[in-house]
């Protein structure tokens, strides 16, 4: 979701003058937009391997058992942050974990390593033609 966020760009309008966390002044009525798609690929935030899919980046390196370490919602902006954070965030995590657990228990799923997703521009980010995978039952 960091690399392919469901809502890749978001805009809001300031009801009153305010100051962003980095010190940028925002006037009343101004529109502020941010690009979660680009932010998920920023080397200044995620390191030189920002474009790499590395699930272990979410694990605490100080624990031998690899304890999950959540990122700040202001850094991992997929569900937005602050008082208007996505209400469905926790439900989305529960659904992802339960579906992955069910699929991995019963099936072997392999994605073609040479496949490059092609995105379709819309309100929510989606892949053109889906994601081709090979699926077979576990023995």
Question: How would you sum up this structure, described in words?
Answer:
The chain has 139 residues and is α+β, with helices and mostly antiparallel strands. The chain has a domain at 89-139. Helix content is 19%, strand content 20%. It has a two-stranded antiparallel ribbon with strand order 1-4. It has a two-stranded antiparallel sheet with strand order 2-3. The protein has a two-stranded antiparallel sheet with strand order 5-8. Strand 2 (18-19) and strand 3 form a beta hairpin. The protein is globular. It starts with 8 loop residues before the first strand and ends with a strand. The model has no long low-confidence stretch (mean pLDDT 89).
Question: Which descriptor suits the 3D outline?
Answer: globular
Low-pLDDT residue spans: none
Query: Into which percentage range does the β-strand content fall?
Result: 15-25%
Mean pLDDT: 89
Sheet/helix structural class: alpha+beta
Physical arrangement of strands within the biggest beta sheet? 1-4
Report Rg: 18 Å
End-to-end separation: 30 Å
The main pleated sheet reads as: 2 strands, antiparallel
| Helix content range | 10-25%
- SSE string, helix = H, strand = E? EEEEHHHEEEE
Q: What is the strand tally?
A: 8
Count of runs of 4 or more consecutive helical residues: 3
Family: Belongs to the cytochrome P450 family.
GO biological process, one term: lipid metabolic process
Organism: Triticum turgidum subsp. durum (Durum wheat)
Keywords: Heme, Iron, Metal-binding, Monooxygenase, Oxidoreductase
């Amino acid at each position: 979701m960091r690399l392919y966020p469901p809502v890749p760009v978001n805009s809001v309008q300031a009801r009153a003058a305010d100051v962003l966390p980095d010190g940028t002044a925002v006037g009343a009525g101004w529109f502020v937009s941010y690009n979660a798609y680009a932010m998920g690929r920023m080397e200044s935030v995620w390191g030189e391997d920002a474009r790499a899919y590395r699930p272990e980046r979410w694990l605490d390196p100080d624990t031998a058992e690899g304890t999950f370490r959540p990122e700040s919602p202001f850094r991992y902006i997929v569900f937005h942050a602050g008082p208007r954070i996505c209400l469905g965030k926790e439900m989305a995590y529960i659904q992802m974990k339960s579906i992955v657990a069910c699929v991995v228990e019963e099936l072997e799923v392999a994605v073609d390593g040479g496949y490059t997703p092609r995105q379709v521009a819309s309100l929510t980010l989606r892949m053109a033609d889906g994601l081709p995978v090979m699926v077979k039952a576990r023995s």
